[in-house]
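User: Here's a chain of 443 residues. Predict its fold as tokens.
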Amino acid sequence: MTPGNFQQLANFIWSVADLLRGPYRPPQYERVMLPLTVLRRFDAVLAPTKEAVLKRYETLKNKDPQLVDRVLNELASDENGKALGFHNHSQLDFRKLKGDPDNIGRHLVDFINGFSENIRKIFERFEFEKEIEKLEEANRLYQVVSQFAEIDLHPRHVDNITMGLVFEDLIRRFNEAANETAGDHFTPREVIRLMVNLLLEPDTDVLTREGVIVTICDPACGTGGMLAESQNWLRAHNKHALVKVYGQDYNPRSYAVAASDLLIKGHKDSRIEYGNTLTNDQFPDMRFDYLLANPPFGVDWKGEKKEIDRWPNFRGYNGKLPRINDGALLFLIHMIAKFQPWQRGNRDKPGSRIAIVFNGSPLFTGGAGSGESEIRRWIIEHDWLEAIVALPEQMFYNTGIGTFVWVLSNRKEKHRKGKIQLIDAELAAVEKRIMALLREVTE
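Assistant: Prediction complete.
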């Protein structure tokens, strides 16, 4: 299957979700469907070396677990002999799971526990054992697993790029079905694409060069949509680029989905980490070429204040912090701290660019001397702010509040020094619609 016709496979997996109707509401389907898609893909990817792994495991099973993981993760490889970085030493696979309906729940748990530690950690965040129990009680587990056993996700038929597109599509559909708290878990695809274009298009000349290495970070990555869209943009413009993406999220299920997406795509050089970005940065010594994020709108940082107050500064910023009832600007300060050093003409100091989506609060809240005002002044005095784009209303689910994309950089072009571009995308969208109507009338 080629990347161009991934939709048929995504549609089939989506259709299996109808079996969940009753014990689950549509917004809850992803709790079952995404973990099972991951398991089925891993089962197919590991199949070629499964026998070799099982034989080696028999000689190692009484050894230190870390040693077992290290050896078997290298032994489990793709059809080109490249180590996958994970393994499963359970005797079970989806075919055997389907063959024993009376013990399907217990066997599925055993199958998951047979994975290497890195995969088990992800499934702990999925909290999938709870869903297995729920499906068994509703007499749906065997039906769903049987359907997945019939899906051929072997790399011979579905390569990593196609599988990644399938998984991205499922994530998007389930997020749209859920329509969770506005702006918290899911950023609409149109907004993501705009942010990625604002971030990367100005550097097209550099990013299309042979041998380029690009690092991208989202410190509030959710299910990984922004990182995935950034990868897609770079793959479309330069298939030979080495793209390393890094993300962190504090929502367990979102982290599990994003981490699974990377593994499904075979991106061993990239990392998704679990934890609170504001108090427990998982990339403390790293800088990135590009950063983008949609931090939660209007979420307080009361739980983090006690720890942050003990620090001499927050991520190198020594000024007054924002009010306790909205921590969005803290994410921007964190991202600015991840800027690569910049020096014109020095390839080792390439500088960085940021795109971040906010509601109106970081832009308008707080009078002179307030934390918000001091942070805005700090940014403007350093001449980091390139542009602010006002998005059309109703872009985010369940809310009509105004939203804005801020674009920042520590390597502004000479002709943009000391300037900030303000763009009304609502007006641009209206003008575009009017032009389209005029064309229809005149044709």
